[in-house]
């Protein structure tokens, strides 16, 4: 039986599972410069970027996609359902453990999580982009070893490498890199 415990950010339950807990579906919120700062220079002018709109809040704009990605909805971890809003949220208001490595480790400790497999958030939307070369450039900017994912502690996080492909052979370079990195 779980016993409620109160932490600074609200009540949680004591672990029910005695063994290690590994989250197999964790997400990071890509920092504002994730793509812009790390993308192949040939794609720099089209890199996804964070844009602030006075009414809509912070949005990740992905050139070539019909709609921007509102930060309020994609980074709702730790919020009560009634507090989740799609629009009007700034990046600074997001759950810090989504992008700050020290906050993430503290969250893992609080939740009893001993490891996680981490996926992108904006990168999931990028999977729908029609330009395969552009997707490659964006995924390379995000993938393991890039400065954007280097913030995660490799002893407790395994970043899920992203590789769009028209044919399976194109996926093999990132697959072997991902296996070596964790």
Any descriptors?
single chain; 182 residues; alpha/beta; three-stranded parallel β-sheet; 5 helices; globular; disordered C terminus
Can you describe what's shown?
- The chain has 182 residues and is of the alpha/beta class.
- The chain has one domain.
- Helices cover 23% and strands 20% of the residues.
- The protein is built from 5 helices and 8 strands.
- The protein has helices spanning 71-74, 101-111, 122-126, 132-142, 172-181, and strands at residues 4-7, 10-13, 21-27, 49-53, 57-61, 69-70, 113-119, 157-159.
- A 3-stranded parallel beta sheet has the order 3-7-8, with helices on one face. A 3-stranded antiparallel beta sheet has the order 4-5-6. It has a two-stranded antiparallel ribbon with strand order 1-2.
- A hairpin with a 2-residue loop joins β1 and β2 (10-13).
- The longest helix has 11 residues, at 101-111.
- It is globular, with a radius of gyration of 17 Å.
- Residues 1-6 and 172-182 have low confidence and may be disordered.
Order of helices and strands: EEEEEEHHEHHEH
Shape: globular
Q: How many domain units?
A: 1
Helical residues, percent: 10-25%
Q: Distance between termini? A: 34 Å
Structural class: alpha/beta
Proportion of residues in extended strands: 15-25%
Mean pLDDT over the full residue set? 76
Low-confidence stretches: 1-6, 172-182
Going across the biggest sheet, name each strand in turn: 3-7-8
Number of helices: 5
| Major β-sheet profile | 3 strands, parallel
Radius of gyration: 17 Å
Tell me the number of strands.
8
